[in-house]
Amino acid sequence: QTLQYEETLAVLIGGNQINNYKGDVLLMLDQYNDVLTVAELQEILGVGRNLVYALLQSGTISAFRVGQKKWRIPKAAVLSYLAQYSL
Fold first, then answer.
1. In whole angstroms, how far apart are CA 18 and each of 15, 24, 77?
2. Which residues contact 28 (CB under 8 A, 6 or more apart)?
3. Exposed (0-12), middle (13-18) or buried (19+): which is 7, by Cβ within 10 Å?
4. Side by side, which strands form the sheet with 35-36?
């Protein structure tokens, strides 16, 4: 599982930068399941619920709905978002 995240990060942010970035992100995300809830995403990003919903509804972070109301966010989508906007 960790190898998959490392490969994703390597592609997204380049091999030279990955060593500085991957450790903190992988340690933080390692405690979560592969599919996250809105509350977990809030915790990871350190933002409020309204901003999380805006990110999901705009497609900035890829996610899917379970039923009509519950959002689920793949951990890989969070890695992609962090790699794109955190550097």
1. 5, 11, 17
2. 44
3. exposed
4. 35-36, 70-74, 64-66
CA distance 50 to 30: 25
Which tokens in the block code for residue 53?
């919903």
Pick 17 or 84 by higher pLDDT.
84
Using one digit for the tens of pLDDT, what is the confidence trace for 52-65? 999 999 999 999 99
Paired tokens of 54 = 């805006």
Amino acid at 67: G
Amino acid at position 69, single letter:
K
- Around Cβ 5, how many Cβ atoms within 10 Å? 17
Q: Distance from CA of residue 73 to its chain's centroid? A: 8
For the stretch 3-32, pLDDT in tens is: 455 555 555 545 555 445 556 666 778 889
